[in-house]
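User: Second chain of the day. Same drill as before.
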Amino acid sequence: MTTTDATPNTLREPELVGQTVVVIGGSAGMGLETARRAHAEGARVILTGRNPDRLRSAAEEVGAMDSASFDAYDSVALERFFKGLQTPIDHVMATGGGPYYAPLREMDLAKALGNVHEHLQLTLQLAREAIDRVRPGGTLLFVSGTGARRPRIGLSIAATMTAAIPALIANLALELAPIRVNLIAPGFVDTALSAALLGDDLEKRRQQLRDTLPIGRVVGPADVAALAVHLMTNPAVTGATYDIDGGQQLIST
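Assistant: Same format as last time:
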């Protein structure tokens, strides 16, 4: 074998050429980073988000084919968005909103139950919208979390959703087949949402994770985006939950 023969060919074709990717919550964080990566892989990208100015900027940055500003938890607006799409869809990713944290004694029950309702409604409605709009073999991809798998005071609602959503995803994968349905479950991801939740404690948390995570760094949106695009392009994966936390569940922090 010659040296030339042994050298691997590092050039490859983009994996999403000619495909359309819809990112619900694509104006920031994990959604925006996934849109960037999908576009780099040749996809036509459609973004949605609640903040029209931020969405406009994100759409221009990633060269989105289209964008629409609305609240994904508004079922009427979400239905109207999908009915208005003029193109077949290959993949849909929904990042959703954040978890609800509060000790039971301090819990606002309306907000707590509203959080549960919103997450379940978005998941179920997107699944129904996908039935006639996502091509066979395409992907419906959701984002949940791992942070509430260890019981702690204040995590009752977050833990409930952390346990419930993977079961829902597995059942939806059977009901929507041959459309594939999967779930990404991140631990701490360094996003604007994390910054808003932690406030002044953000840098302390970052350093704690750098010091303790097996990977030696904090997980970022690009890590999640890489997994998301892989799940879009791997036709053998459905009904699964994929943790991406840098080994956070293996340590005691």
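The first strand starts at residue 20 and ends at 24.

User: Great, on to the next one.
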